[in-house]
């Protein structure tokens, strides 16, 4: 097990567990993203390693990307580092599981819902609050319309509202909701149902389903990145929203 740093990785046979370790909120800043990318790069492909389980330390999954990394001098590096995680997971053949307790917000929700399975406790809360900072979540903008349909995706992204684990399950974001002390057992039960299956067939079937969804993730994410960096981050309101958050005050929108 890798203990040091902001990302902890442990291996148990075909399963690797990746823990976000920046308590209490497990905010993902650029160094944590770099550690996560390095950890993923170091992990072997199937059949040597077949499953990744993502979870947060203590009682929080992750409240997302550090707002301070959205400033003009950091935003391009932040976006590139964070989205490299998703590109890696999209192209790899691991089966991914998010084990969610507590807050799962912003980039944390993007990462959790990007996984093939999401198991959450009743305490879990999901949301994409970026709009309140004058931003939008690029991965969610690509992924949620496919998972939920455009209307429900717009509801979550444009309002920035937080939903319970039960509502997230009803929307189709979560596979199973369990008691607070049942999460580890529920994840292990899921793994026990998958481990006996053919590694080759599981990987092929996952790839077939993703392809059948019609989502060209790489192309769509690239388009979102261009909008984010070339248009959104050039607006006065995006700069104001980030400044207001850092200064702990209400934003004053200019409308441009």
Description:
- This protein has 256 residues and is of the alpha/beta class.
- It has helices spanning 30-42, 75-91, 107-114, 138-148, 150-159, 165-171, 183-194, 199-212, 217-231, 236-246, and strands spanning 7-12, 15-20, 51-56, 95-100, 103-105, 117-121, 125-127, 162-164, 176-178.
- Strand 3 (51-56), helix 2 (75-91) and strand 4 (95-100) form a beta-alpha-beta unit.
- It is globular.
- The model has no long low-confidence stretch (mean pLDDT 96).
Layout of SSEs?
Blueprint: E1 7-12, E2 15-20, H1 30-42, E3 51-56, H2 75-91, E4 95-100, E5 103-105, H3 107-114, E6 117-121, E7 125-127, H4 138-148, H5 150-159, E8 162-164, H6 165-171, E9 176-178, H7 183-194, H8 199-212, H9 217-231, H10 236-246
Helix pairs in contact: 1-2, 2-9, 4-5, 4-9
A few lines on this structure:
This protein has 256 residues and is α/β, with parallel strands linked by helices.
Characteristic terms for this protein:
globular, 256 residues, six-stranded mixed sheet, alpha/beta
Average predicted confidence as pLDDT: 96
Question: Helix and strand string, N-terminal first?
Answer: EEHEHEEHEEHHEHEHHHH
CA distance, first residue to last residue: 48 Å
**Low-confidence parts:** none
Form type:
globular
Number of contiguous helices? 10
Cα-based radius of gyration, to the nearest Å: 18 Å
Sheet with the most strands? 6 strands, mixed
Helix content: 40-55%
Q: In percent, how much strand structure appears in the residues?
A: 15-25%
Q: Give the strand order, joined by hyphens, for the main sheet.
A: 1-2-3-4-6-9
Question: Structural class of the secondary structure composition?
Answer: alpha/beta
- The number of distinct β-strands equals 9
